[in-house]
Specification:
Elements lengths: L2 E6 L4 H12 L4 E4 L13 E7 L7 H9 L1 H4 L3 E7 L4 H10 L3 H6 L2 E4 L1 E4 L6 H10 L6 E4 L1 H9 L3
Length: 156
């Protein structure tokens, strides 16, 4: 059974989570969406999609990829995850609202894995907004490895 983890990241949190997930799903492959736009999904039984959240939304390119490939994705064993700094209901709402209802309902596993505010990777404006909105003064790393482990167990 071939598995691919396709992710879209802004500052690296979603990639980090994809790498942790790959480690737990022996034999799976990673694909950064920037390099996987023409990836043939027919070679995979399982597809896991991961996107980063900024201001409540995934990147437009990620959303377009999911919509363009929806029919093929609906034929696969499917997993969906997001990386965000929100928790509980807010994070669950962001997860649900950033995938089509069909993909969301089809997914065997869906979850949020936490996130990272890495000031070293942000530009001045991003740092300014994060400091004002999230009220943090330095980088914050909140990847939830326990959630990644539980997510991976559903594919074993």
């Amino acid at each position: 059974m071939a598995t691919v983890i396709i992710y879209s990241t802004r500052h690296g949190a979603t990639k980090k989570c994809a790498e942790l997930l790959k480690f737990k799903l022996f034999g799976s492959e990673l694909a950064d969406l920037k390099e996987a736009l023409d990836l043939q999904l027919s070679g995979y039984d399982t597809v896991i999609l991961g996107g980063s959240i900024q201001a409540g939304k995934v990147k437009g390119a990620f959303r377009k990829y999911c919509e363009k490939n929806k029919e093929e994705l609906l034929k696969k064993k499917l997993g969906l995850y997001i990386c965000c700094m929100s928790e509980d209901k807010q994070a669950e709402d962001q997860l649900k609202n950033n995938f089509s209802p069909e993909l969301y309902e089809k997914a065997l596993a869906k979850d949020y894995f936490g996130g990272i505010f890495d000031f070293a990777k942000m530009n001045f404006l991003e740092r300014f907004i994060i400091k004002k909105v999230a009220k943090v003064k330095e980088s914050v790393f909140k990847i939830k490895e326990d959630r990644i482990t539980k997510f991976a167990e559903k594919f074993k």
